[in-house]
Amino acid sequence: MAAQLALRPMDIPVALQLADSADLTYEQIGDVLGISQSTAHDSVRRLRAAGLVQAEHLRANRIALLEFLEHGVRYAFPAVLEAPAAGIPTAFSGPALVNEIVADQPIVWPVASGTTFGPAISPLLPNVAELPRKQPTLYRLLTLVDAVRVGRTRERSLAMDLLKSAFRSQKRQLANG
Predict the structure, then answer these.
(1) Domain extents for the chain?
(2) Can you tell me the distance from the alpha carbon of 159 to that of 146, in angstroms, rounded to the nearest whole number?
(3) Which among 4, 106, 137, 174 is placed 20 to 30 Å from 165, CA to CA?
(4) Using CB atoms within 10 A of its CB, is residue 1 exposed (0-12), middle (13-18) or buried (19+)?
């Protein structure tokens, strides 16, 4: 009997990257995310098994991905607030929601070089230190996913609205490009 494939936290950034840039190679996925080609391949295999990536192409199934992000990601990968640390702003402290939600303290991904201090959550992508500078679109999307993972109803709703809007504009860009 074949082993049951289960999603891992790393798979969400891979799916988001494929939603943003369709038909990348495994090498390109690895380069963008700072992971190996084999790690990218394994991630896509799990995402295909879950129906979040199309079987015949390296493209996200945007409808299924949005459904999973809205209804499943916070249960599959719950965000646990840890001790305050220096880090990179995420969730409602990230670039997409920082001006929409007033918070007592920012939520961060703990990174030694971080300039923001607040309660920390573990990032879904291990190598996030350079993400805001090198991959601002993916950074924005991941912070929205974190808002879904850690937020209350209002934060989750705003984050999902912005994720849906981002996916619609990405789909138009891919169709026109």
Answers:
(1) 79-152
(2) 9
(3) 106
(4) exposed
